[in-house]
């Protein structure tokens, strides 16, 4: 038996009898998650710059925000009423009292009180604040129940001490964060600026006003792509409509001042799809030539000779959204040095048909945090589903069953 096995093995290994080798296959498109990782690694964070607080909204902290002062900077009153020293009743020492923004009233000794406004500095010697509704002043005398020591006093350093870290680096600057920076003593902040983006709309078949006619269709991507990039953290410089003019495209790419260029359409290899040829003529490096995702698999990522990344979105609307969230979103996060969004999952309320080999992105509603309802009108050229969706469900190859938990990509909102 062993001899028979050895004979069979030798026969199988005889190169003269081996079946012909299949022709080498073209390199497969990268998986969806691998493409997102490639996009994130393709760029370095933009250099930091200093901006005044009124221009810093939406940018990202380039360094930790540390307090330049104690907060509060001194003991202040939390209520309107009287600053009191010791137990009552008390003698009022000042008719005008302590006002917010004014120097502290004179020091108090036991049995003395002074009127005080919310936010005013607590006089030396005061032990508490008696609220206005809890006391009664008449003929220079104040009566009321003696408050507990420290009552309604915001103590110096209650929120933080000088040098304390208030926000870590990589924090996006919201209105509240800017208010905190102002309270902590800042006039300017070191930030990673919002990446500047330029949108180039390609395709002679597009109309920019009126109803479709004579084989031409309305441009849905021009009005959508810029606002979507803004919601993803970009500063959109301009949206330009170039048609299928290869020379105009070459000039636009060579003269752009953007940190990221996003094109719509022309990612395929049809007779009027000039994008790949123009990129090759300019000497751009094609980092991603397609992604194993539906819709949107013809999307591409290239690096222009000057180092500026270009994301090519397919011309179908939902396919373009897929490209924005697959390639543009991680690129913008890397440029702004923002941390990744925490992953979120939910259980599907119904089955979703999958692609045999590729990831599929499907618009869903999320009526409750744990559930995701697939929406209709989810074809590559459709926008009805995505317009009503709150997220895209990431469906693995082969599909997903009802109640199966899948990853969600929350859709940005300006």
UniProtKB/TrEMBL annotation:
Pfam families the record matches: MoCF_biosynth, MoeA_N
Domain MoaB/Mog: 198-334
Record field: catalytic activity: adenylyl-molybdopterin + molybdate = Mo-molybdopterin + AMP + H(+)
Keyword Protease: no
UniProt keywords, alphabetically: Magnesium, Metal-binding, Molybdenum, Molybdenum cofactor biosynthesis, Transferase
InterPro entries: MoaB/Mog-like_dom_sf, MoaB/Mog_dom, MoeA-like, MoeA_C_domain_IV_sf, MoeA_linker/N, MoeA_linker/N_sf
Keyword Zinc applies: no
Cellular-component GO terms for this entry: cytosol
Enzyme Commission number: 2.10.1.1
Biological processes, Gene Ontology terms: Mo-molybdopterin cofactor biosynthetic process
Gene Ontology MF terms: metal ion binding; molybdopterin molybdotransferase activity
Family assignment from sequence similarity: Belongs to the MoeA family.
Name this polypeptide is given: Molybdopterin molybdenumtransferase
Organism listed in the record: Streptomyces radicis
């Amino acid at each position: 038996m062993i001899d028979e096995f050895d004979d069979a093995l030798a026969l199988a290994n005889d190169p003269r009898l081996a079946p012909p080798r299949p022709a080498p296959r073209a390199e497969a498109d990268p998986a969806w998650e691998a493409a997102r990782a490639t996009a994130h690694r393709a760029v370095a964070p933009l250099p930091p710059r200093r901006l005044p607080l009124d221009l810093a909204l939406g940018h990202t902290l380039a360094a930790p925000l540390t307090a330049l002062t104690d907060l509060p900077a001194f003991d202040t009153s939390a209520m309107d009423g009287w600053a009191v020293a010791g137990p009552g009743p008390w003698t009022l020492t000042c008719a005008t009292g302590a006002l917010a923004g004014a120097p502290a009233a004179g020091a108090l000794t036991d049995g003395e009180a002074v009127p005080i406004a919310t936010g005013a500095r607590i006089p030396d010697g005061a032990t508490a604040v008696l609220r206005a509704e809890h006391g009664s002043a008449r003929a220079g005398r104040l009566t009321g129940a003696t408050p507990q020591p420290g009552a309604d006093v915001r103590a110096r350093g209650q929120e933080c001490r000088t040098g304390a870290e208030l926000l870590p680096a990589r924090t996006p600057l919201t209105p509240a964060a800017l208010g905190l920076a102002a309270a902590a003593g800042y006039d300017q902040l070191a930030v990673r600026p919002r990446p500047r983006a330029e949108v180039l709309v390609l395709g002679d078949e597009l109309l920019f006003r009126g109803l479709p006619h004579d084989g031409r269709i309305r441009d849905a991507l021009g009005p959508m792509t810029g606002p979507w990039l803004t919601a993803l953290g970009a500063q959109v410089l301009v949206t330009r409509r170039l048609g299928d003019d290869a020379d105009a495209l070459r000039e636009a790419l060579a003269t752009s001042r953007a940190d990221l260029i996003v094109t719509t359409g022309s990612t395929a290899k049809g007779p009027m799809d000039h994008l790949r040829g123009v990129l090759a003529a300019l000497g751009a490096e094609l980092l991603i030539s397609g992604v194993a995702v539906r819709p949107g698999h013809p999307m591409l990522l290239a690096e222009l000779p000057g180092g500026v990344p270009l994301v090519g979105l397919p011309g179908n609307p939902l396919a373009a959204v897929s490209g924005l969230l697959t390639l543009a979103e991680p690129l913008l996060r890397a440029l702004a040095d923002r941390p990744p969004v925490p992953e979120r999952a939910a259980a599907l309320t119904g089955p979703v048909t999958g692609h045999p080999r590729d990831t599929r992105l499907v618009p869903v509603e999320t009526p409750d945090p744990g559930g995701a309802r697939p929406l209709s009108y989810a074809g590559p050229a459709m926008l009805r589903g995505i317009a009503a969706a709150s997220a895209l469900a990431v469906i693995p190859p082969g599909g997903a069953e009802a109640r199966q938990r899948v990853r969600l990509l929350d859709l940005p909102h300006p």
